[in-house]
Design goal:
single chain, Rossmann fold, Nucleotidyltransferase, domain 5, 2 domains, 7-stranded mixed beta sheet, 6-stranded parallel beta sheet, 17 strands, 36% helix, binds adenosine-5'-triphosphate, binds magnesium ion
Length: 432
């Protein structure tokens, strides 16, 4: 490939110091995470344009993909951010052509594409020659989306840039870039104090939040994980459980049978709570969640835990026959030895949530084994309508849903074991 003549141009753009470090040297991934107003979006938008410029000068050709998780229209995209970044810098302004709905270099080498990962992922897959993909607001991007997106960005020396406001340590983005980081990555935490352009209007909001919303302050402004989400169904009950030290060490008691409550995911996560009912107490001794594996996997996990089981509570749709095998999941579980089964009644979600609320006051959680389940119950929340700025009546479907559904089945599906079994346990306890 012949390299075209490059023009010596000294360019300068203004960026916060921490951002400059992310863009120094070679890297496949460049990431920044942190609280509100820390200049993530502005800086990365600007840097996409700078990168497009330098790549074009080196004779490279391709697309810059600016993605968000949800994107219903171009108005919601990063288009305007990128345009205003370009307008603010003379050499970029000269280099790019800014249309109402497009951005491209005048030389024709660089073209911007704006996409939503939820809806347009498959069309992204077919987009040729992505030399740079920037995902902003990436906290909620699922692992499936990352798995599909990353191999699509396959041009020589292509790069993936990611910016987000951390919310939960269980998010796919957190796990992919902070817990198991790829080798060739530059990453930095950036917060409001790192942004030399942090505007007064946001600083006033920040100071008010410090006083009025101390619970949320660290999450909103300091890039900390969210502990109790706004609009969370069980915020009061879960706070109370923490406060009353009911999140502690709750060991398995071998004299009492274990109840499991399942939410069965179809191509989604399957969640299982393990509970022991002792008097009025509901002891949550364990929690398990996985995805992309068959029912035999869960039967094996139950076996390996070594608990003695009393009953397995399953959602009502477990009776539905699957198209491929003609068998129901109930039959499959039965053949795997997961029995006896109790099918949870088909109540609406609100009644189920109410049932969980009344049960939570009697719940004790093993803090270690149920860590993910506890976090999910803390954050299970109503869906927020961004446009109308109101809470919807239905729950948000996210990583917390399966755990919360399994908890609902426990609350509405638990029936004390058959009568002849009970006196035996009582006698045993009486003797002790
Ligand atoms: N290079 C810059 N020049 C001038 N102002 C800037 C620059 N970078 C950031 N700002 C100011 O800081 C504000 C916050 O920046 P930005 O929107 O990029 O933050 P963010 O980290 O993406 O915030 P959020 O988490 O809310 O999405 C901007 O609205 C702007 O006022
Ligand atoms: Mg932003």
């Amino acid at each position: 490939m012949t390299k075209e003549k490059t023009k010596e141009v000294t360019t300068s753009v203004k960026l916060p110091h921490k951002i400059v470090e992310i863009f120094e040297g070679e890297a496949r991934y460049r990431c920044a995470y942190g609280g509100r107003g820390s200049a993530k979006t502005r800086s990365f938008a600007l840097m996409t344009a700078v990168r497009g410029y330098t790549w074009a000068m080196e004779g490279k050709q391709g697309q810059i993909l600016c993605a968000l998780e949800h994107l219903n229209s171009l108005d919601e995209s990063s288009l305007e951010e990128v345009k205003s970044a370009i307008r603010g810098v003379d050499f970029l302004n000269d280099f790019y052509e800014l249309g109402e709905k497009f951005i491209r270099s005048k030389c024709g080498r660089i073209n911007y594409v704006f996409s939503g990962l939820r809806r347009n992922l498959d069309s992204i897959k077919s987009k040729a020659r992505i030399i740079l993909c920037w995902v902003d607001e990436a906290e909620g991007v699922s692992d499936t989306a990352w798995q599909k997106l990353i191999p699509t960005v396959r041009e020589d020396n292509s790069e993936i840039w990611v910016t987000w406001n951390p919310e939960t340590k269980h998010s796919a983005t957190h796990r992919r870039f902070r817990v198991h980081p790829p080798q060739d990555m530059k990453i930095a935490e950036i917060n409001w104090r790192d942004n030399p352009y942090f505007p007064d209007v946001l600083d006033k909001e920040r100071q008010q939040d410090k006083i009025n919303r101390p619970d949320l302050y660290d999450h909103i402004w300091e890039g900390e994980m969210l502990i109790h989400a706004e609009g969370a169904y069980y915020a009061v009950e879960m706070r109370e459980a923490t406060h009353n030290e009911r999140m502690t060490n709750v060991p398995y008691d071998s004299s009492v049978g274990v109840i499991t409550a399942w939410d069965l995911g179809m191509g989604d996560s399957t969640s299982i709570w393990f509970a022991q009912m002792v008097g009025a107490e509901v002891r949550l001794i364990d929690y398990y969640e996985s995805s992309g594996v068959g029912l035999d996997h869960y039967a094996k996990v139950l076996n390996e835990k070594g608990y003695i089981y009393d009953q397995h509570i399953l959602p009502h749709d477990v009776r539905v026959r699957e198209l491929g095998s003609g068998r129901s999941r109930l039959e499959t579980l039965d053949s795997l030895g997961v029995r006896p089964v109790q099918i949870a009644p088909q109540l609406n979600v609100d009644d189920g949530i109410q049932a969980v609320r009344s049960m939570l006051g009697r719940c004790w959680f093993d803090a270690e084994k149920c860590e993910r389940g506890i976090d999910a119950l803390r954050q299970y929340r109503r869906e927020y309508d961004e446009k109308g700025m109101t809470w919807r009546s239905r729950p948000l479907h996210d990583w917390t849903s399966h755990c919360a559904d399994a908890m609902r089945y426990l609350a509405i599906g638990y029936r004390p074991a058959s009568n002849w079994g009970e006196p035996i346990r009582r006698n045993l306890q009486g003797i002790v």
